[in-house]
Design a protein that fits this description.
The chain is an alpha/beta fold and about 325 residues long. It contains eleven helices and nine strands. It has a seven-stranded mixed β-sheet with strand order 3-4-5-6-7-8-9, sandwiched between helices. The protein has a two-stranded antiparallel ribbon with strand order 1-2. A hairpin with a 2-residue loop joins strand 4 and strand 5. It starts with a helix and ends in a 34-residue tail after the last helix.
Length: about 325
């Protein structure tokens, strides 16, 4: 009976047992509740195919879809002091950093890169909301300064994708000092005559909105992105009034003159490339190359006919 119990029965059960479905194959849209196949969602750049809701996307994944062929060169950023204030709340600041690094696979909340978008060379900077809410700390300030200096050295435009909950409280006043630092970096771009385009994604709030996120020559936002300094809940509690529907969302701000464009994620490549080429007096956007026409081979001259042999008389 031991042989039957220990070997035969488990073998039969393994053959006829129901296979479990992996949990990461489907993603539920937080807006409409539609179950989306993960591969289809990835191909659509984390945008719901049912309701067009724009979900968060990491900077590395965004750059893979933004740059031509997904190719870009990452620009190094000077590392600041790890824990300048020795801050601790429920956890130590270094422990929170290690957890965020493990969860995102990135060392900080911002990625800086150089590449081409539809043959238009540029420098791009993107924030990762998944890394401690994309909070603005010293590294984020260093990233924007590094991106601006690299753009000035190469005479390239700068494009910034913002996504943040504000300043990083674990760095205190040092995080707030990134507001004037980044403002000076944007002024350096303007003095060099280089365009600076900002793409505001959901959410962009707090000190980020009060500094580099609203200083672009052209302000673009993704659909339904929350863009504000103080959130709508805080404002309602302060003024004790009901706010208009869609208050502080991208479409509302576009109607009230705070934004220039609201553009879906899949159209950002062509729109940014077109704007940059207009601002830098370049030619039209190159969407693709046609193959070179096949040249017909030169016809070979026909050989002259041989003279007929003379006939004897």
């Amino acid at each position: 009976m031991n042989w039957i119990t220990n070997y035969v029965r488990p073998t039969i059960n393994s053959l006829f047992s129901r296979r479990e479905m992996p949990e990461n194959l489907w993603v539920k849209c937080p807006e409409c509740g539609t179950m989306l196949f993960h591969r289809e969602l990835t191909q659509n750049q984390q945008v719901c195919t049912s309701c067009n809701h724009h979900m968060p996307i990491s900077p590395r994944e965004r750059f893979a879809n933004f740059f031509d062929g997904g190719l870009f060169t990452e620009i190094s950023v000077p590392a600041p002091i790890a824990d300048p204030l020795h801050f601790r709340d429920q956890k130590k600041y270094p422990d929170r950093m290690k957890a965020a690094q493990k969860g995102t696979g990135e060392k900080e909340a911002m990625l800086v890169a150089e590449g081409q978008v539809l043959r238009t060379r540029l420098v791009a900077v993107a924030q990762d909301f998944g890394f401690m809410g994309g909070s603005m700390g010293m590294y984020v300030g260093n990233s924007i300064i590094a991106g601006a200096e690299h753009a000035i050295a190469r005479k390239l435009p700068l494009v910034l994708f913002s996504a943040a909950g504000g300043a990083r409280m674990q760095e205190g006043i040092l995080s707030l000092m990134q507001m004037p630092r980044t403002t000076v970096a944007i002024d350096m771009l303007r003095e060099a005559g280089l365009p600076y385009i900002v793409v505001l994604t959901h959410p962009t709030t707090g000190g980020v909105t009060a500094s580099y996120a609203m200083l672009g020559d052209v302000q673009i936002a993704e659909p339904n992105a929350l863009i504000c300094f103080a959130g709508p809940r805080v404002i309602e509690q302060t003024i004790r009034e009901t706010l208009p529907e869609g208050f502080q969302r991208a479409e509302y701000l576009l109607d009230h003159g705070m934004l220039d464009r609201v553009t879906p994620r899949k159209d950002l490549r062509s729109e940014i490339a077109t704007i940059l080429r207009m601002l830098t007096a370049q030619g039209p956007v190159v969407y693709g190359d046609l193959p070179a026409p096949e040249m017909a081979a030169d016809p070979q001259p026909e050989p002259a006919p041989e003279p007929a042999p003379e006939q004897g008389r």
